[in-house]
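Q: I'm building a small set of examples for a reading group on sequence design. Run inverse folding on the following structure and report the sequence directly after it, with nothing in between.
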């Protein structure tokens, strides 16, 4: 008389076993995304829930960031590493090299499908572009941050992180280069820049436009950057322990040569001139830049405007001066490309080719 209850229990056991197997299979099909945390506002805390300025950045660890967004477990198999914990204004060459090597090591593993890097917004565009030039994989790498600390009302960090993981785990993002995802928008590392000091819609690609959106739990791409990146570049940081010193000299009305001379005296191997307009060279600084070039410093003409091409032989005779022009790269990104270029060559002809390629 116990046969029927036993059959019922056995059937229930089989049902539970099948459900568990299905859940395990579903989990196994989820992309495997590693979150590398570096600090920044997304990991920041404020004194009150309304503190959106004057907060302390880089106080929350990666485990807490992941725990704060339990929905991540539904879209990816997520793991986290704390690479370092700093505000992004303190990001430097040493951190870039460490981060790039760790990203390349992880992406070489067959059980890693994508990388998300949490980062402060002040220099997020620079880190993203550096990685865009040195990552050696087609797998997605997404850099993400927040404009409000984790303790603020309507903190944007959790949804930004969720969207970044969605994008990093998607097939649509494969081969697109390093991406920056905030405010439901996907931007290319080469083209994105911070345009507002405090608002959540600060990251834009003003002239060339974003790549797409994250909507309905899915990234939607509408275009791709045509400049070479990641696997297509000639740069390799695997054996680098330092990067050449490259600095930026900013131009303005009545500017003199003092900053240029000081940077050269401090050991600059390359110098980006953030000129006015189309990278114009004021009369007072032209001799200092020319002298620096004659002494072996590579000079790149860029513009403080932030949009548009700096035309070769436009506002200066670059051929005669033996200068390089930055194409559409803003000064801070021109500095990154020049640093990497100087690890390969000091030929201005070769370096100009790189600026036209990347």
């Amino acid at each position: 008389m116990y046969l029927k209850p036993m059959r019922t229990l056995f059937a229930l056991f089989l049902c539970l076993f099948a459900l568990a197997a299905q859940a395990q299979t579903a989990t196994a099909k989820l992309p495997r995304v590693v979150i590398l945390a570096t600090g920044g506002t997304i990991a920041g805390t404020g004194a009150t829930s309304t503190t959106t300025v004057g907060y302390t950045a880089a106080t929350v660890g990666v485990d807490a960031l992941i725990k704060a967004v339990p929905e991540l477990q539904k879209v990816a198999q997520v793991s986290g590493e704390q690479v370092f914990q700093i505000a992004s204004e303190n990001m430097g060459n040493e951190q870039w090299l460490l981060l790039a090597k760790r990203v390349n090591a992880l992406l070489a593993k067959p059980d890693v499908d994508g990388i998300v890097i949490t980062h402060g917004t002040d220099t997020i565009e620079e880190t993203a572009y550096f990685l865009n030039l040195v990552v050696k994989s087609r797998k997605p790498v997404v850099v993400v941050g927040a404009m409000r600390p984790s303790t603020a009302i309507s903190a944007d960090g959790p949804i930004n992180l969720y969207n970044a993981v969605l994008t990093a785990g998607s097939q649509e993002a494969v081969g697109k280069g390093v991406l920056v995802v905030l405010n439901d928008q996907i931007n290319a590392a080469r083209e994105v820049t911070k345009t507002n000091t405090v608002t959540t819609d600060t990251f834009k690609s003003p002239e060339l436009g974003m790549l797409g959106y994250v909507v309905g739990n899915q990234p939607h791409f509408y275009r791709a950057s045509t400049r070479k990146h990641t696997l297509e570049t000639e740069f390799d940081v695997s054996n680098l322990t330092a990067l050449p010193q490259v600095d930026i000299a900013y131009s303005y009305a009545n500017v003199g040569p003092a900053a240029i001379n000081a940077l050269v005296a401090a050991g600059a191997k390359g110098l980006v001139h953030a000129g006015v307009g189309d990278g114009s060279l004021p009369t007072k600084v032209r001799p200092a830049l020319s002298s620096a070039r004659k002494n072996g410093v590579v000079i790149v003409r860029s513009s403080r405007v932030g949009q548009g091409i700096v035309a070769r032989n436009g506002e200066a005779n670059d051929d005669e001066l033996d200068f390089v022009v930055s194409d559409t790269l803003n000064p801070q990104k021109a500095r990154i490309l020049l640093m990497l270029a100087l690890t390969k060559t000091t030929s201005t002809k070769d370096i100009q080719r790189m600026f036209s390629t990347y």
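The domain at 246-357 is CATH 3.40.50.40 (Rossmann fold).
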